[in-house]
Amino acid sequence: MQYTSFQPRPRTLLGPGPADVHPRILAAMARPTIGHLDPLFIALMDEIKDLLRYAFRTENRLTMPVSGPGSVGMETCFVNLVEPGDKVVVCINGVFGTRMKENVERIGATAVVVADPWGRAVDPNKLEDALRAHPDAKVVAFVHAETSTGARSDAKTLVEIAHRHDCITIVDAVTALGGCELQVDAWDIDAVYAGSQKCLSCTPGLAPISLNERALERIRSRQARVQSWFMDLNLVMGYWDGSQRRSYHHTAPINALYGLHEALLMLREEGIEQAWARHHRHHLALRAGLEALGLALIVPEGERLPQLNLVSIPEGIDDATVRARLLAEYDLELGAGLGDLAGKVWRIGLMGYSSRPENLMLCLGALGTVLRDLGHGGDIDGALVAAHRQVFG
Q1: Which residues form a coiled coil (predicted)?
Q2: At what angle do helices 70-81 and 213-220 cross, to 10 degrees?
Q3: How many CB atoms within 10 Å of residue 134?
């Protein structure tokens, strides 16, 4: 077989991630590779940390990108902050809460589950009850923005409850960072992780994290050695901490970090509050258009993520057929449902560079046309007009 250079078709990515990557970011990643200990690259690392502090709304010294996807950010937080024998309260309202529980159990700790229905926020009262029943718990873990369902939990309240019971918090903000309000310092979050490929509009492969002094003190007081060499923050900080001479830990993904730097620079240029507002405005426009098409959002209004929308599939419509046609005929990718929601919902992401008016109109027009062909009625022109009004007034 003869192989040639891979040339993917341009797609419009409106699923749960990755999102469309801005041309500025792709251009930044094509710049010349330099060494991971080059003084120029060291200076870039310091800028990335400062820009991440802006995105997370924190002054935490330990704020940096981990080399790996969001799942590596998750595992980094767990293996450093949880020891064998610890009791951890894990809030599960979707796939990624389940993965938190898996991390806890693989470490040799005990997971106490606070379960809520998929598509709903974590119930603070259930967390309070669990902590009262387990006063020896040391950590509370929850997903702020559940990628599998589009539900947003009240992170500020959940952290307050955890701290009242002397627990530190681990928060999944993979889909939240850059797309909806996230205030690491104001909400007193102890450890948080995110991903580069969602609302930051960068490529997959980097996981921003931030840990406060309370979390660092827990790491310093560990009785057991961190079970992962690669994710041991005691070692990684020898490379990322600018207050000391940089020591080799691993070869950083240099060009990917060029891209993250550009993405964070663009976020600062737009303004973090303005980015949150843009995602919310486009969510309202999508909702208006979907309603005109006769489609409904699953998550209750006060618990919805603006950047990831869970849409009920009409009765008699086959999920896979619709998504396959959208991809083949419009180069448009929507996300499928996961777990109990598989085949019942679509996940429409409006994240980062994907959150643009032209993508809204493409999505509504294409989805409406395919559904009409399959026998589902809906006012396509009305959907486009309704969305336009929400975006432009």
Answers
A1: none
A2: 60
A3: 16
d(CA 337, CA 32): 40
Place of tokens 């998550």: 299
Which of the 8 DSSP states describes residue 303?
G
DSSP 50-78: HHHHHHHT---SEEEEEES-HHHHHHHHH
Are the beta carbons of 215 and 190 closer than 8 angstroms? Answer: yes
The pLDDT of residue 393: 80
Which residue has 């303004």 as its token pair? 271
pLDDT reported for residue 334: 98
| Continuous segment of H or E residues that includes residue 194 | none
pTM given for the model:
0.96
Helix (H) or strand (E) segment spanning residue 335:
strand 332-336
- Residue type, position 189, single letter: I
Residue 6's φ and ψ, nearest 5 degrees, are: -80, 125
pLDDT of residue 144: 98
The 10 Å Cβ neighbour count of residue 117 is 12
What is the DSSP code string of 88-106?
A: EEEEESSHHHHHHHHHHHH
Report the candidate in 70, 201, 207, 202 with the shortest Cα–Cα distance to residue 147: 70
Instruction: Decide if 134 contacts 86 (C-beta within 8 A).
Output: no
| Element holding 160 (H helix, E strand) | helix 155-164
141: its two tokens: 């873990």
**Residue 199 structure tokens:** 């609302």
What amino acid is encoded at 171 in this protein? V
Question: Which residue type occupies 86?
Answer: D
Tell the burial category of 182 from Cβ atoms under 10 Å away from its Cβ (0-12, 13-18, 19+).
buried
Tokens representing 10?
């341009």
List, in order of start, the domains of the chain with CATH numbers: 23-268 (3.40.640.10), 272-392 (3.90.1150.10)
Encode burial over 74-93: b for 16+ CB neighbours within 10 A, e otherwise: bbbbbbbbbbeebbbbbbbb
**Is 164 assigned to a binding site?**
no
Rounded to 5 degrees, what are φ and ψ at 209?
Answer: -135, 160
C-beta of residue 145 within 8 angstroms of C-beta of residue 176: yes
Residue entry with tokens 């019971």: 165
Low-confidence ranges of the chain (pLDDT < 70): 242-244
